Amino acid sequence: MTALPGLSHRRFRVIALLTGLYVMQAIPIYLFGAAIPVILRDQGVSLATIGSLSLLFLPWVLKFLWAPYVDRWSLPFLGRRKGWIVPTQLIICGAIVVMAFLDPHQDLFTIFVIACGISFLAATQDIATDGYAVELLEEKERPLGNGIQGGSVAVGVIIGGTVTLLLYDIMGWTASILIAALAGFLFLVPVLLIRDGSNVGSLSSSSAKPDKASILAFLKRPEARFVLYFVLAYRLSEGFIKAMEQTFFVDQGLSVSAIGLLSGGSAAAVGLAGSALGVLLVKRMGASAFLLVLALARTVIFTGYIAAASLDISSPIILVTLSVLNTFVRYMEIVGLFNLCMLVCDRNQAGTDFTILSCANLFVYMCGGMVSGFIADQFGYGFLFTLATVLSFIGVIQGCYFVKGATKKGLARPETV
Asked: What is the pTM of this model?
């Protein structure tokens, strides 16, 4: 494989590998998160049944429980990370192929069981992939790697969600699902182009060995707990906004087609742009200061949602602008947060450490989303958005404290990242 101008051969191979891995993972996530619920509804499946698909994301919240075992064990003939990544991806692709030949209405229970298995395997694969990323990326490469992590989500939305729905409309269930399986297999190819192993030294002072990887070893490290607390507080406000954003737009009179465009292809394009800009700014500012600036920007955007709800604004231009800005900042945050998480990962249990932090990230985001509907229903959108804005502003205050503390712990210098 020939490297691109300006990229070393090794760096090009690492970028190709991580891009393939993260896009590969994102395809089944958004196949079930974005495409299949729409397809099932088109097949006449009830909303209550479709809503139960949210259970498929439970392994992504709980995967920290088995992350230490992924760090400890692997197939010896494939390597520590590939020993998990390659077999799980092959099984995932095979399961999607089987699912393609089932009837989405008559075989719904079987499809759900297969989907649960795919979700568990994909979450397990993600543990190994994140550990692989921490091990492979040198310090100066981490922002780019974090940008790939965020950008792959956007690409997954396009391939697993938008493209699958377009193909379903043209070719039907079987062909569209088979093509999704083929896409997942093709992105496995770059995994075979680089040897398994580490290219960097230990990222912490921990002396833990892979066979001793544990959650307790993570919690014993002060800098790891420091970042964990920050992640939990930083993301709480976002779930309140994002979970109710689309329903708010519907109630304000925005068309369903416009909302679909916002949550589909346009959101992916905005996400890719946000990830790219996030890479540049993290390199220049450092993750801690970068996240503080984003917390300020996020608070201002949330204030716009308060105004839209309080003044009953129904202008599509204003609502779309709010959504685009919110999405843009959110994808930039992914780059900053993941970069910060990598800084405190011990290479000897990188999968465990990064998984704990990513699960905390997702858990607190989901908590906000779970209660947002009740709050909006009882007190209105204005109150919900005000609460989110207050929590976001608290995040700004916390961010100021964090930057000060991170400087003392060596986590805030731009040259570190």
From this structure: 0.84
